[in-house]
Design a protein that fits this description.
CATH superfamily: MazG-like
Low-confidence stretches: none
Distance between the termini: 45 Å
Radius of gyration: 17 Å
Number of domains: 1
Strand content: under 5%
CATH architecture: Orthogonal Bundle
Number of helices: 4
Largest sheet: none
CATH topology: Helix Hairpins
Shape: flat
Number of strands: 0
Structural class: mainly alpha
Mean pLDDT: 82
CATH class: Mainly Alpha
């Protein structure tokens, strides 16, 4: 998928077509809002409330897509090549030493 094209398209659809206010801070806040919706879907699914597992799986799918679209739109407004940024980040993660992501034990365990 070409994330850069997605970002330009999302800006045109979401902000221009619907007449929403558009600025760098607004697009960044939309990324955060969409990430919050992902968290909500996961939390409600894990709690087993307000919907079936299938319902929350569908919600999670939609919200994850929203995060990608919002991030692509934000990157486009900042002139960031998101495809390259993702590739660079994957390379940085791949270069981390093994065990880098292990969490320390809690002091009381």
């Amino acid at each position: 998928m070409d994330l850069n094209c997605l970002g330009a398209l999302a800006g045109a659809i979401v902000y221009e077509r619907h007449g929403l206010p558009d600025s760098r801070p607004i697009r960044a806040l939309v990324v955060a809002e969409e990430a919050g919706e992902v968290s909500r879907a996961v939390l409600k699914s894990e709690q087993g409330i307000r919907g079936t597992p299938d319902y929350w799986a569908t919600e999670l799918r939609e919200e994850l897509a929203g995060v990608v679209i919002a991030a692509a739109s934000c990157a486009a407004q900042w002139g960031i090549d998101l495809d390259q940024a993702v590739a660079d980040q994957i390379a940085r993660l791949d270069a981390l030493p093994e065990g880098h992501w292990k969490l320390p034990r809690a002091a009381n365990t």
